[in-house]
Amino acid sequence: MGNVQRVIDGKTVLKPQEVFNFGVPQVCNKRSTPSKRMTEVKPFSFEKRDIELQKKKDEKIKAVFEQEKKARIFHANPVPQLCQDLTKGLFTDVSSTTNKSQDENMNSTFRARPAKVLSQKPFVPKPADRRPLIPVDLVLNTESRSKIREEFNQYLKERDEHIEQLRAEERARQEEKEKREAEEMKRVAESFKARPIPKYKVQNAGASTKPCGPHLSEKCHNRSDN
Asked: Where in the cell is it found (predicted)?
């Protein structure tokens, strides 16, 4: 147990510190006023929720079907008014109609304007203030490409001619070599002389020392030898 220093009336007093007893459960002081809960427990049913969702879904489907049904109904456009009202103007005053026609005729009468162009000076175009354009020699890319292509074709032609010349020289050397080999073989064949057949001493065969008969079995000879 430890001591705790406390100052009481200007004097330092040592008091023992209480040790917490882990074996004895402590009861916390409850608040006198109950705390207000943020949430409130209410009954909840999954079956009821499913029924409400299904009801909303059916209403939505029904509304969509009604809209599609209204859209399929044919609504004809009204007939355009092509015929004019012939009765309009029949009961108007004849004098007002005559005056109106006269005014229209006067307005439609052609009146020529004075020819001012005849007294004016003729039109003279003004020279341009800018300097005259000097044409520049154009160097087309097609010309340079055609020149390069012509040089390349000439190079290919010379290369093919050189290769053909080398092949002709190689064929000539091969033919000359074969010709020399044929002449050498012919010369060797003409200078060949066969050796004469050697003469050997005639051997006189003597009389046979092995009896010719009687023909006995070899098995008997082998047994007798053993």
From this structure: Cytoplasm, Cytoskeleton
CB of 15 within 8 A of CB of 3?
yes
Mean pLDDT of 105-111: 70
Can you give the pLDDT at residue 79?
Answer: 78
How many Cβ atoms sit within 10 Å of the Cβ of residue 207? 4
Measure the CA–CA gap between 69 and 104, rounded to whole angstroms: 58
Please give the mean pLDDT across all residues of the chain: 78
Instruction: Give the separation between CA 19 and CA 22, rounded to whole angstroms.
Output: 9
Quote the Cα angle for 119-121-123, to 5°: 135
pLDDT at 225 over 60: no
d(CA 179, CA 173): 10
**DSSP assignment of 52-93:** HHHHHHHHHHHHHHHHHHHHHS--PPPPP--S--TTTTTTS-
Cβ-based neighbours of 6, under 8 Å, separated by 6 or more: 12, 13, 14, 15
